Amino acid sequence: MMAITTRSSTRVNPVRLGLEFENIVTSIKILEPLFPRSDEEQAVREIIKTERAPEGAGERILIAEDDNDVREMAIGMFDSLNYTTLIASSAEEALEILEREDDIELLFTDVMLGSGDTGPELAKKARQNLPGLRILFASGYAASEFDHGTPFELGALINKPYERAELAQAIRVALETARA
């Protein structure tokens, strides 16, 4: 069980002519239950404690994501996993980066990019010049919701929202997959 202590305050903001509410977490305590755990539960907890998300060795990864918040979250996760990131907010920008940059190991792209572009279309265009480029798609939709002809054979798919450990595992699998 977890106990969270918060502190709240209210103040008047004369510039906005309104009230601002602030809720700050001041401490978090993990409280262990007093009753014994089952052997199964204890075994799972031990696995979780010892398993670490596989980290990179500075591999260069191009992130193509049109949503600013999702892009910033992804950048933070990739950076925390020791990958070097290059950033594109559109398919067009991603293709420009792929043309001028060498040794990009992986293209991490949203399936549905803005401006009518899609990740699979981007992947096809990228593979024309870089046939061995590894690709990892990210989507908030289930794979079964896409048209029958969507070319996921170009790469793997991770579903949003994803946890850091899930992303780490998906990246590692994609990077270890033989180039086409």
Key attributes of the depicted protein:
180 residues; alpha/beta; five-stranded parallel beta sheet; 28% strand; globular
Report the principal-axis shape.
globular
Q: Give the fraction of residues assigned to helices.
A: 25-40%
> Count of DSSP E strands?
7
Look at the structure and give the mean pLDDT.
76
Radius of gyration using CA atoms only: 21 Å
Strands in their spatial order, largest beta sheet: 4-3-5-6-7
The rounded distance between the terminal residues' Cα atoms is 47 Å
Q: In percent, how much strand structure appears in the residues?
A: 25-35%
Secondary-structure element pattern, one letter each: EEHEHEHEHEEH
Please give a structural write-up.
The structure is a single chain. 33% of the residues lie in helices and 28% in strands. The protein has helices at 39-50, 68-80, 91-100, 119-129, 164-176, and strands spanning 2-13, 18-30, 60-64, 84-88, 106-110, 134-139, 156-159. Strands 4-3-5-6-7 form a five-stranded parallel beta sheet, with helices on both faces. Helix 3 (91-100) packs parallel to helix 4 (119-129). It is globular and about 50 Å long. Mean pLDDT is 76; it is low at 1-36.
